[in-house]
Specification:
Number of helices of chain B: 11
Distance between the termini of chain A: 92 Å
Oligomer: heterodimer
Number of strands of chain A: 24
Shape of chain B: elongated
Strand content of chain B: 5-15%
Strand content of chain A: 15-25%
Radius of gyration of chain A: 37 Å
Strand order of the largest sheet of chain B: 6-5-7
Order of helices and strands of chain B: HEEHHHHHEEHEHEHHEH
Structural class of chain B: mainly alpha
Shape of chain A: flat
Largest sheet of chain B: 3 strands, antiparallel
Structural class of chain A: alpha+beta
Helix content of chain B: 55-70%
Distance between the termini of chain B: 26 Å
Strand order of the largest sheet of chain A: 6-7-10-11-12
Number of strands of chain B: 7
Chain lengths: 602, 293
């Protein structure tokens, strides 16, 4: 993309901005901009805590008084956020360490101190690892704002000073990072050509006699460069400085939409979050909750009523009419009734004085002439049940409500199975998209850092999302042993248990493999082992090895950090020797002819 | 000189009894210790109305008892006793060498003889170390305990069974002593005879004298031969005979080691031809066993 093309692009966008200045509608920077932002705003009231849905409440109750609106606003609670939180928890299954894997290739010798794996898993700026960034940020954003973009650029540019000049230090590896820009900042995105975003950062521009930090700053990602376009000069002139921030020369645009469910438009593609179908039910939840708050306040306490007569105050300007009297050409509040238009029939000392009824009036005044109204709890109950129903509906739409409670008997298991399969089917789709982005980020970052020849890691996408907790795995292992399942099955269950219990570590797999190789009684129960020892088919040192395998392995690794690089046969020999030595230590001195004959000379 | 050789022979034969006697005496103490330990540990087993209960705790305890027995048997005293016993084999070999020196006028020991001695020592000790006791004593005791627990036998019955097994009953030795006796006496004697005969073979000696005296329980086989001279071929021919107490592994080669058989404390001592009575020599010339030089 030539500089002239970039300048033309910016001019076009600035013109659109100017055309929509002062208007309520959002500018149409690109064919899907307005819809994308509206989608985000609809979802964000449920995905952010304590963000008041102003539009929602104003639209729903246009006759609502200001007082009521302010009351709702002041007392607003994000009752729908837990649904999104639960949804995110469900999505995070895709990141379970047992469900996916990544294999790095071999790094060139010259990068041995700055390997791809080290950078992406330990040295990644701010988040520590790219994986953390995807788990904590990208997965959530993808469902909040699928029309947002993820861009890749250097975290900073390494520089050196030479002859008074600041130059790029090309001896140092750059640190590329991924960065998300929400849809309202995505000015334009043309697949395979460019991505233009407006930063929230502002530049200094002149506004009258002053300098203000209100100038626009854009970033443009093309197939070869990352540009930084900064407004300069007078604010109203919209002049820009075009700075070549980084030449990545990748041959492709290092940016992508986060994506979700695609909706084709005449020009461009709009993405709708998988969370969106639940939004209408969640909107109703919020509204009903707001009404519930008002109802509680208005109705929960008994209201006192009393008989009141029409205010009959008058002065030289006039008499009270509906609480107001004329005064110097204006109507002011009546000083007697304070604008209410009525007067109490009780005296200040609390004595009720009732006008004697006439023959025609009859005795319409009740005795006593006051009382209390108890609120009808049915209203509150109704609102609560509506809120619960909408929450259930939202959870069901999101496949988070596994198992129809109406189903009874033997169909329960089948229904649960069907629900679970639907949920996992949805999760698989989202997972594939997230991992495609993950793979794309790896490509952009590593090729930016090491060059196009770098060997990219191989990522195995998740295929299974069932998560078992420790208790389930423990029970499964016990059952597997009892039923005499093959060692391979028990071994994989133990490995899965260790990963859940201790968080996956690369060493865990090596340790479990070694244990299965060296401990021939690893799958036997304690009772079995005792019986076999009594019958002599298990030696004491084997029992010691079985019970102390993890301690022994830890000891040998501490003694030699390269222990796992030894041949397997050597690893086994070392551990067996340890077990036998411990046996000699704890057991009575083993006597055999050789040891006795050896001691004869002593 | 004759007095010397007689003294040596006397010493050599006497030790075939006295050395194992000492070892057996040590083992009696251990046998009693084993029984006391078992009784104490039995008290910890779960019981219901005087009967052992089939519980996980009891199964675990039996495993502990098994380990504890080994500690009791193979304590420092026993190790010292067996080491002393092993040392006696070497001393016996020295006496044998002294015998040969006296009998032949000169004798030089060889590495071959040491290897043979070491071999016989090992064979003897193998029957007195941990593996042997495990098979003979510890496992059977454990089996008694296991069966008692599984079958929920009464405590009284079990303790009686164990007492009979470990300590013995009237006229019957306890298991440990019975094993020690059988092994200690026989292994010491066989080792001595094997060593003696190995040297005789190496030196090419042909005539032997059956010696050891007569005691109350001397078998007829030994009694008939005691004090008499024989050619080695005559001795070899005995392997084909049958007699009470004959070792089932007796062959023409092993007769020199096993002699009269189980618990035999006689020696078949090689002698120089000069000391053999003429009648014996003549007999063997006539039957073709011996050809004078």
């Amino acid at each position: 993309m030539e500089l002239t093309d970039i300048q033309a692009l910016i001019s076009e966008k600035i013109q659109i901005f100017k055309d929509y200045q002062g208007k309520k509608e959002l500018p149409e920077y690109n064919p899907v901009f307005r819809e994308a932002v509206e989608y985000y705003e609809k979802i964000s009231i449920h995905t952010e805590q304590d963000v008041f849905p102003e539009k929602l409440f104003k639209k729903r109750a246009p006759n609502q008084t200001d007082e009521e609106f302010e009351y709702i606003k002041e007392n607003f609670k994000s009752v729908t956020y837990p649904v999104f939180s639960k949804y995110l928890g469900f999505l995070n299954r895709i990141w379970n360490d047992a469900n996916w894997s990544i294999q790095y290739g071999e790094d060139e010798t010259r990068f041995s101190n700055n390997t791809a794996q080290e950078y992406l898993e330990k040295g990644y700026p701010v988040y520590g690892s790219l994986e953390n960034y995807f788990k904590d940020i990208v997965t959530k954003w993808k469902e909040k704002d699928p029309n947002a973009v993820i861009c890749h650029k250097p975290y900073d540019i390494p520089t050196i000073e030479k002859d008074g000049e600041i130059l790029i230090n090309d001896t140092e590896l750059i640190k590329p990072i991924a960065k998300i820009y929400p849809s309202k900042q995505v000015i334009d995105f043309k697949e395979g050509l460019f991505c233009l975003v407006e930063l929230t950062e502002k530049s200094w521009v002149e506004y009258g006699p002053k300098k203000v930090k209100e100038g626009k700053i854009f970033e443009l990602y093309t197939t070869e460069h990352v540009w930084r376009i900064v407004q300069v000069g007078k604010k109203i002139d919209y002049n820009f400085e075009y700075i070549l921030y980084w030449s990545h020369n990748l041959g492709y645009v290092p940016a992508s939409k986060l994506r979700a469910e695609p909706i084709e438009r005449e020009e461009g593609i709009l993405y709708k979050s998988h969370f969106m179908p639940a939004v209408p039910a969640l909107d109703l939840m919020l509204l009903d909750n707001g009404n519930l708050q008002i109802s509680k306040n208005a109705h929960v306490f008994p209201q006192k009523w009393e008989i009141a007569a029409e205010c009959d105050y008058e002065n030289e300007y006039g008499h009270c009419v509906a609480g107001k009297i004329p005064h110097e050409g204006k109507n002011i509040y009546c000083p007697s009734c304070n604008g209410t238009g009525t007067k109490r029939i009780s005296s200040p000392l609390g004595v009720y004085q009732i006008k004697e009824p006439t023959a025609t009036e009859g005795s319409g005044i009740p005795t006593p002439p006051f009382g209390y109204v108890s609120p009808d709890p049915a209203v509150l109950e109704f609102l609560r049940s509506e809120i619960d129903a909408n929450e259930d509906k939202a959870l069901s739409i999101l496949n988070l409500h596994v198992g129809n409670s109406q189903v009874k008997g033997s169909d329960v298991a089948l229904t649960r199975q069907i629900d679970r399969e639907e949920a996992f089917s949805m999760l698989l789709g989202i997972s594939n998209q997230v991992f495609q982005l993950f793979e794309f980020s790896h490509k952009c970052i590593l090729e930016m850092r090491y060059g196009p020849e770098v060997e990219l890691p191989v990522i195995s996408y998740p295929r299974n999302f069932a998560i078992k907790n420790e208790q389930e795995l423990t029970a499964e292992i016990a059952e597997a042993k009892e039923k005499g399942l093959p060692d391979l099955v028990i071994r994989n269950l133990i490995l899965e248990y260790l990963k859940v219990r201790f968080n996956y570590q690369e060493e865990v797999s090596q340790i479990v493999d070694l244990a299965f190789n060296v401990d021939r009684i690893i799958t036997l129960s304690t009772m079995d082992i005792q019986q076999k020892k009594l019958s002599g088919s298990v030696a004491n040192w084997e029992d010691i090895l079985h019970t102390s395998i993890w301690v022994f392995i830890e000891e040998v690794v501490q003694e030699d950090e390269n222990f796992f690089e030894l041949e397997l046969s050597e690893q086994k020999r070392i551990l067996i020797e340890k077990a036998k030595a411990k046996d000699t230590e704890v057991s009575p001195q083993r006597m055999n002819p050789d040891t006795i004959l050896a001691n004869l000379g002593a | 000189m004759a007095h010397n050789i007689e003294h040596i022979i006397e010493q050599k034969i006497a030790r075939l009894e006295s050395v194992p006697d000492q070892f057996v005496a040590q083992s009696r103490k251990i046998q009693l210790q084993v029984y006391k330990e078992i009784s104490k540990l039995l008290g910890e087993l779960d019981k219901v109305e005087g009967r052992f209960a089939l519980t996980q705790k009891n199964i675990n305890l039996i495993e502990r008892i098994n380990a504890q027995l080994k500690k009791v048997i193979f304590n420092e005293d026993y190790i010292e006793a067996i080491t002393t016993f092993a040392r006696e084999f070497s001393r016996q070999a020295k006496i044998t060498e002294a015998y040969f020196a006296e009998a032949l006028g000169e004798f030089t020991t060889k590495d071959l003889y040491k290897s043979i001695l070491s071999r016989t020592q090992k064979n003897a000790l193998a029957l007195l170390t941990e593996d042997a006791y495990t098979q003979v004593l510890i496992n059977p005791v454990t089996n008694i305990l296991e069966s008692s627990v599984i079958s929920e036998v009464s405590y009284k019955e079990t303790i009686q069974a164990l007492e009979n097994f470990i300590l013995g009953a009237e006229g019957v030795e306890g298991k440990l002593i019975s094993h020690v006796k059988r092994v200690a006496y026989d292994s010491f004697a066989v080792s001595d005879r094997t060593y003696t005969n190995a040297i005789a073979e190496d030196l090419g000696l042909e005539f032997y004298r059956y010696q050891g005296g007569k005691i109350e329980d001397t078998r007829d086989f030994c009694s008939q031969r005691d004090g008499k001279y024989f050619h080695k071929k005559e001795i070899q021919a005995w392997a084909n005979q049958k007699w009470q107490g004959k070792n089932t592994a007796t062959t023409e080669a092993t007769i020199f080691a096993f002699a009269g058989g189980y618990n035999c404390k006689h020696s078949i001592l090689p002698v120089s031809t000069k000391s053999v009575p003429k009648s014996v020599i003549q007999r063997n010339i006539e039957n073709g066993n011996y050809t004078p030089d």
